[in-house]
Amino acid sequence: MAYVINDDCVACGTCIDECPVEAISAGDIYVIDPDICTDCGSCADVCPTEAIHPE
Questions:
Q1: How far is 49 from 15, CA to CA, in rounded Å?
Q2: d(C-alpha 54, C-alpha 52), whole Å
Q3: Domain locations in the chain?
Q4: In the chain, helix, strand, coil percent, each to 5?
Q5: Into which CATH architecture does domain 3-54 fall?
Q6: 3-state SS track over 22-41
Q7: How much is the pTM?
Q8: Tens of pLDDT, residues 1-52
Q9: Is 3 helix (H, G, I), strand (E, B) or coil?
């Protein structure tokens, strides 16, 4: 089960640096590639707006 980023994302970039498998892509709202995500939760732990949740 991959993590997903909702509309609360402010594109701050904090999560990209935390992802060990580089599954997160930048944009107006960041996106996690479910085929790459290992469900580690590192991104969710550092998200300042709590926009990242398990799918």
A1: 11
A2: 7
A3: 3-54
A4: 20, 20, 65
A5: 2-Layer Sandwich (3.30)
A6: CCEECCCCCEECCCCCCCCC
A7: 0.91
A8: 899 999 999 999 999 999 999 999 999 999 999 999 999 999 999 999 999 9
A9: strand
